[in-house]
Write a structure and sequence with these properties.
Protein name: histidine kinase
Radius of gyration: 13 Å
Structural class: alpha+beta
CATH topology: Heat Shock Protein 90
Membrane topology: Multi-pass membrane protein
Catalytic activity: ATP + protein L-histidine = ADP + protein N-phospho-L-histidine
Number of domains: 1
GO biological process, one term: cellular response to phosphate starvation
Distance between the termini: 14 Å
Shape: globular
CATH class: Alpha Beta
Strand order of the largest sheet: 1-2-4-3
Largest sheet: 4 strands, antiparallel
Keywords: ATP-binding, Kinase, Nucleotide-binding, Phosphoprotein, Transferase, Two-component regulatory system
Helix content: 10-25%
């Protein structure tokens, strides 16, 4: 799971406004731990939200030359192996929030 947090936090930092604030929240809901990582960046178009979980998919190649397009695909694979779930909500011009739902052990 270390790779999941590294990828999600790196994305939040990379796509946030300069000197932007990222507030990670954690909560317990029933049998699950919920972790949300928002950014206040440019957002992801609605038609790309599911595609960003595919290997090598990049919303816009001009966004970051440092990205291989593997980050969220790796996150999806690791999360699935742990019996967890994650969702991505985004609004153009306002940012993106990734929420991970982990079963309590």
């Amino acid at each position: 799971m270390e790779q999941v947090w590294d990828n999600l936090l790196t994305n939040a930092i990379r796509y946030s406004e300069p000197k932007g604030k990222i507030v990670v929240t954690c909560a317990r809901e029933g049998d699950y731990a919920i972790v949300s990582i928002p950014d206040r960046g440019i957002g992801i178009p609605e038609d790309a939200l599911e595609k960003v979980k595919e290997r090598f998919y990049r919303v816009d190649a001009s966004r970051s030359s440092q990205s291989s397009g593997l980050g969220l695909a790796i996150v999806a694979e690791i999360i699935e192996r742990h019996g967890a779930e994650f969702e991505i909500e985004s609004e153009l011009g306002k940012g993106t929030t990734v929420t991970v739902k982990l079963p309590n052990s």
